[in-house]
């Protein structure tokens, strides 16, 4: 009878060991799956962050292009204004030189005093 009890205890221990081993195996699987899921999640978050970063970069590039275009247009307008101003100044100077020469040639007498660039000394 004692042998039967010992045999039952050993059987129960083996069963308990199996249950514990199965539980440990399942726990290891759960932990491994959790690590894999966490790794996948981290990768997905990284990919999303990269995509979002790329979108931000694209948005910033677009804004930079627009700003550069605006600067170029403004520079071209200023260049045109300077060119026009220079042409006006050159025109005024040419007319002044012409008037001085005309003044000298006609002994200080201009025929048209209505001239925009009438010169008197």
Automatic annotation (TrEMBL):
The lineage of its organism: unclassified sequences, metagenomes, ecological metagenomes. The keyword Coiled coil applies. The keyword Metal-binding does not apply. Keywords: Coiled coil. SUPFAM superfamilies: F1F0 ATP synthase subunit B, membrane domain (SSF81573). Residues 2-85 form a coiled coil. This is V-type ATP synthase subunit H.
